[in-house]
Sequence to fold (373 residues):
Amino acid sequence: MTGDLSVTFTGIRFENPFLLASAPPTESESNIVKAFEAGWGGVVTKTIGLHPVVNVDGPKTKFLRATPDSPRISMQKRPGTALHSSWNWELISDKPLDWWVPRITKIKKAYPQRILVASIMAGSGSDDELRNWQKLATACQAEGADALELNLSCPHMDRKDMGSNIGKDQGLISIVTEVVKEVAKVPVWAKLTPSTTDIVEEARAAFLGGADAITSSNTFPSIPLIDPETLEFEMNVDGLVSSGGLGGPAILPQSLAKMAQMTQALPDHSFSGIGGIAEFSQALNYFLLGCGTTQVCTAAMLDHAIGPNIIKSLTDGMRAFMEAKGYSTLEDFRGIRRDRVVTHSKIRRPDAKAYHGGYETEGYAATTGTPDR
Ligand SMILES: Cc1cc2nc3c(=O)[nH]c(=O)nc-3n(C[C@H](O)[C@H](O)[C@H](O)COP(=O)(O)O)c2cc1C
Fold:
């Protein structure tokens, strides 16, 4: 039996459930075309905005690597290391809307069956700023974008009314989503920041505003490490650093925890999972928790800029998995481990005495020796 990799997500049919995330792999027409040729089911464009963008004077992304025989992680290039994470402080696309518009048309004309999601971002501090969301949305959908992804999660914004600062404010999330939905003729996905206390609340706010899906995670806010010799941050400009984002293998378990919270609380809604995916076994986690698509950034950046080997391994891996397990579509296994994430007190204890998560008096065992934690 050969499994069918195609999926329908927010009403859109994808040849396979693997997309390139909004990031350098989707920053240009040539990259997007190469991605479609390589077999990606869809792409989310690098985020398009209307405000001026100037990146830092130096590298925008570096990769942290671990050494097998020492606890050290560092951005320094050295042999025999394994990838730990990516760290970036790259802003959204530095190309204006006018640059993107004709290219979206051209790409969609050449690849009508492939899915192009336009990632957009504006401010939220005034009616004019909110109208900018509508301007971006209408321009991209008029050119053939199949869906819109709202960047409510960029971790590098000084502006309090933009990026992850919107994603931390449930009121603003609802307003921005609603404003875009007023003009949208295509599905609207809201990309949330993992940097909040209870992401379920932000997801609810997006759905309240009319979002068709949640995308999660964007990168986790972080700063580079300090070199013990030079006492300089491993990545800096004139000795200074600022907030950046961690992606890649290191964030996979953290991103899954956020996703599990949302898919459990809102099981009837649609979710696109991102964070630390490089092969099918990792994407599978997101599917088993209930996601209908997954997205990849860091792993693709390290594989010829757009991940031709990554997409091949994802689709081959999914096909082999479905054949081995006898599944014919993603729907056969989507969400089947969602209910296995439970409160702590539901986990079996070695003796019969019940544990109530610390709520009731159970009496403490006499402690001799080292406590567990
Ligand atoms: C260099 C770089 C630039 C990025 N730019 C954007 C962006 O413009 N818009 C966006 O929504 N996410 C952006 N991201 C976040 C990624 O889309 C993705 O959410 C994140 O990297 C986690 O996925 P990964 O673990 O596969 O890297 C960027 C990530 C990196 C590493």
Residues 21-24, 46-47, 60-61, 86, 88, 90, 92, 119, 151, 154, 191, 218-219, 247-248, 251, 274-277, 296-299 surround flavin mononucleotide (CB under 6 Å).
